[in-house]
Design goal:
The complex is a heterodimer of chains A (111) and B (115). Chain A is mainly beta and 111 residues long. Chain A is 0% helix and 54% strand. Chain A contains no helices and twelve strands. In chain A, a hairpin with a 2-residue loop joins strand 10 and strand 11. The radius of gyration of chain A is 13 Å and the shape is globular. Chain A starts with a strand and ends with a strand. Chain B is 0% helix and 52% strand. In chain B, the strands form two sheets. In chain B, strands 2, 4, 5, 6, 9, 10 and 11 form a seven-stranded mixed sheet that branches. In chain B, strands 1-3-8-7 form a four-stranded antiparallel sheet, with no helix packed on it. In chain B, strand 5 and strand 6 form a beta hairpin. Chain B is globular. The termini of chain B are far apart. The chains are: A mainly beta (111), B mainly beta (115). Chains A and B meet through strand 5, strand 6 and strand 11 of A and strand 5, strand 9 and strand 10 of B.
Chain lengths: 111, 115
């Protein structure tokens, strides 16, 4: 069965540190890839998405992700995190309009 | 443009009862998906409706059901509630057209507590 793995369930960083959250999926065909974010007390919202073209995609709030097809990965990055980036981050793969979700990574930024 | 609206936002039920949750998608969106979110299991797909037809279904027991109306509004029902059904139930809508990349727009969820 198709699955999405997020390597870290909890990440704690200091402000200005660099961030990389891992995401790997198990499906060999064409996929649409997403990162969603859920800020405390808010609804899930799209951070960025990839479905074709440049494998390096840029999203909101300075986030970016790189699709590496050979590694089945779609890692999320941000060069310098802020306290307001504290949230839970979910990677998802769209297969026939059904999103397969990773378990999520809770990111805590220490001020 | 109004977002996805879910009602009620919070509810408390007891074991054995049933519950109905409602979701109004973004205007023009014809697809509505439902997810269960729990701390231990993350986001679990329940089902998706498009034009009043169930298109996909996750691995949940038959106690979980849903429907979609002609105006794209959707309801989900859980019968014979169990303690383990306590969760945040999320509704998401999307265009579901051939050009749709699959981006979902989520509501704030209905938090169900089963006592």
């Amino acid at each position: 069965a198709q699955s999405v793995s997020q390597h870290n369930h909890h990440v704690i960083l200091s402000e200005a540190a660099s961030l990389e959250l891992g995401c790997n999926y198990s499906y060999g065909g064409t996929v649409n890839l997403f990162w969603y974010v859920q800020y405390p007390g808010q609804h899930l919202q799209l951070l960025l998405k990839y479905f074709s073209g440049d494998p390096l995609v840029k999203g909101i709030k300075g986030f970016e992700a790189e699709f590496i097809k050979s590694k089945f990965s779609f890692n999320l990055r941000k060069p310098s995190v802020q306290w307001s980036d504290t949230a839970e981050y979910f990677c998802a793969v769209n297969l026939n309009y059904q999103l397969i979700w990773g378990a999520g990574t809770k990111l805590i930024i220490k001020p | 443009k109004a977002g996805v609206t879910q009602t009620p936002r919070y509810l408390i039920k007891t074991r054995g009862q049933q519950v109905t949750l409602s979701c109004s998608p973004i205007s023009g969106h014809r697809s509505v998906s439902w997810y269960q979110q729990t701390p231990g299991q993350g986001l679990q797909f329940l089902f998706e409706y498009f034009s009043e037809t169930q298109r996909n279904k996750g691995n949940f027991p038959g106690r979980f059901s849903g429907r979609q109306f002609s105006n794209s509004r959707s309801e989900m029902n859980v019968s014979t509630l169990e303690l383990g059904d306590s969760a945040l139930y999320l509704c998401a809508s999307s265009l579901r057209t051939s050009g749709d990349s699959g981006e979902l727009f989520f509501g704030e969820g209905s938090r169900l507590t089963v006592l």
